[in-house]
Design brief:
Largest sheet: 4 strands, antiparallel
Order of helices and strands: HHEEEEEE
Membrane topology: Single-pass membrane protein
Domain Wall-associated receptor kinase galacturonan-binding: 48-107
Subcellular location: Membrane
Number of strands: 6
Keywords: Signal
Strand content: 25-35%
Radius of gyration: 25 Å
GO cellular component, one term: membrane
Strand order of the largest sheet: 3-4-5-6
């Protein structure tokens, strides 16, 4: 009888611990999608008023189309503001994005001014 009580207590305690440990996570509720419409990507002179699917700098990740469309911003030593995008393992400097014609003008960052795509 004592053995049966110990087994029952063990299972009850195990179930209780699992229940406490496996509480469902609260969903993220602070994603303000109305800001996505109002907040476009702006950085430097060449890129302004860029919207979905691009994100980065002043535009939060939930406003974009995933990691593929992340625009990285930086300022070089000559105070030039540039944006780059990572495609595969290659980094490109973004020269222009035209959302009307769905085109991006960019060059490989490692080639500097030699080649534009």
């Amino acid at each position: 009888m004592d053995k049966l009580i110990h087994i029952i207590c063990f299972f009850l305690l195990t179930t209780l611990l699992q229940t406490l440990h496996c509480q469902p996570q609260q969903p993220q509720t602070n994603l303000n999608y109305s800001l996505c419409r109002e907040e476009s990507y702006n950085y430097g002179d060449q890129l302004s008023n860029i919207s979905y699917p691009f994100w980065g700098h002043n535009r939060p990740s939930h406003c974009g189309g995933g990691d593929l469309f992340y625009l990285n911003c930086f300022e070089d030593q000559r105070k030039n503001f540039t944006s780059t995008i990572l495609l595969g393992s290659q980094n490109f400097t973004v020269l222009n994005i035209n959302l009307t014609t769905y085109t991006i003008k960019m060059r490989r960052t490692d080639l500097a001014d030699e080649v534009s795509i």
